[in-house]
Write a structure and sequence with these properties.
Elements: E1 14-21, E2 24-31, E3 34-40, H1 48-53, H2 55-75, E4 86-91, E5 97-102, E6 117-119, E7 124-128, E8 133-138, E9 141-147, H3 151-166, E10 176-181, E11 187-192, E12 198-199, H4 205-217, E13 220-222, E14 230-233, E15 236-239, E16 247-249, H5 255-277, E17 293-294, E18 311-323, E19 326-338, H6 348-361, H7 385-395
Amino acid sequence: MSHTFKPIPSHMVSHIGGWNRYPSTYYFLWKDGHQLVVEVPCIPKHDISYYMENPQARAKVNNQYDRFIEMIQAVIDTVEFGKTNWAYLTSGAKGGYKLQLRKKPLPAITCPLWAPVIRECEVKIKKFVDGSYRIGEWKGQEVDIYRAFDNFTFKYLNRMMENYRILEGTDLTFQVQGHLLDDAGTVVGLVTEPMTGREVKVSDRSLVYKVVADLQRRGFLLMAISHQFIFISQGKVRFACMGNEVVRYYPPDKTEELVKLAAQYHWEDLRYLFSEGITTGWPTFRQLPARLNVFPKIPSPERPYQVPICLVFQLSYFIKRQDKDKVVVEKRSITVSIAPERPNHALSDGVKDIEGQRNRKNGSKALIRTRHHASQHKFIPYLPSSTRRAIAYKNDETEATSDSIS
């Protein structure tokens, strides 16, 4: 299946997806091959099941999500992509909003690597499905990509790798092309061949039963049998949705336990699937529309045009003085010119520094900002400011600067 790829213009920021489920709200942004996750105060206050049953509440949450996109767009030009992986949208000290950048450590993958490593810069993205699923091209071949970004998605990635590794050699999964590495060499995703095929049908019953029975004889237990888990590709059974708890292996000495569990997970679930569980028309992730919203470039306001005006005043006055026996009256004039000073913006930082030095010499209190070291404590951006400041003062060293106010 080919995908029309509309490339993101160079130096433009795009919103490629998001996550808006309790307890987190994220926005995924992309620019020149670099991804940035922007976190905002969590919008949903309930689990997803609550919003599925309450359309009005769901619409309200979606509207709030869209409003945050506008706020992010207004300040995104202040961010240099590629310097960090995470940002928090917070209220500014003088009103409005700002982005606070943080380098968020990524969880380590525990599953051993067995396939080639592929760097993100080697993959050309053709379609963003959401923040994690993408369709791309690697070495001239179309590939599917899963990319993790937080604790939840890294656990999903780790389970996905374990499932693929257990089923390696069974010819029942889509082939793994490689492990995806970010710029720092951290494993952040998995690259596979395209997950194409069709949904399972009632006519596939004998083929699916045969595959499951063969896996059970080899010690495998499948725990996710459903119409979304099983594909038919080129006349063969293929398993997808590998990030769930899909498969377990039981050694020969635990065959009795495997048989008991298989009665439910295999045969009861298969009976339900082919009697009433097949639901057609559900799109696969490859069939979902692309999540791509390019932010228009918002030009910064130019400085107002100034016409230099020079004001000239002439003051005239008379004085009397005694000259021998007579009084002499003299007229005198003073010319005063007033011209606006033209500031040198290039030297503004140096002037601020000089003024700061003068303040310190004169005993004046400089405006200081406490800059906290992220390595000392966990950054908690959405606590009340007084609470956050108390935590920072207790746990961090501070350094003072004379350019802003805390």
